[in-house]
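Problem statement: downstream parser choked on a complex file, so we are re-checking the raw output for the 4-nitrophenyl phosphate run. The parser issue turned out to be on our end (a line-ending mismatch), but while we're here, posting the original submission so the record is complete.
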Amino acid sequence: MNETQTVIFVCLGNICRSPMAENVMRQLVAAEGLSESIKIDSAGTAGYHIGDPPHAGTRAILAEYSLPCIGRSRQISTADMHQPNTWIIALDESNKNDLLRLNHSHPKLFKLLEFSDSPLNPSSLDVPDPYYTGDFETVYQLVTAGCAGLLNQMINGQ
Ligand code: 4NP
C-alpha cells in the first residue's frame, strides 16, 4: 500500500451495522500499525438518523468486547462515491444496489462478507439487520470476520 486508503462502511441507517464495522476495523488496523495509512469511516444510504450516535445495541456489544464506539450517523454522498483510493463496503445487497445508483462503475464497491471465510449463509453474503432482529452478537461475529478478511485483502491484495 503506497497511498493512503479510505474505507467507508455503508448500511441503511448508519446506527447499527456500519458503525460496528467502523469501530471493529479501526481496532484491527491499529493493531497492525496501519492507522496512518488506512482511514476508516461509515455512512448510511438513508438519512433517517443523521447526527445520532450508534444504537444502544451496537454500543453494548462493542463495550462487551472492550472496543470504543465513536461516530455519528451521516448519509453517504455522491462525492464519497467518487473519492479516489476509497473502498466502499456495503453491509447487504440492498445497500450495495443503492450505492450503485450513485456510481455504477465504482472500482472498489464490495459487500463486507465477500471477504469473510465464515459468512452466516454462503449463498447470502448479507449481514442481517439487528435493528429488526435484535441479534447484535451474531452481527458482531460476522462483522469481525469480514473486517479481518478485508484488511488481509488490503494488505496482501494487489
Ligand atoms: P442499520 O440498521 O442500517 O444497521 O443502521 C437500521 C437502523 C435504522 C433503521 C433501519 C435499519 N430505520 O429504519 O430507522
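For whoever reads this later: Residues 4 and 37 are 5 Å apart (CA to CA).
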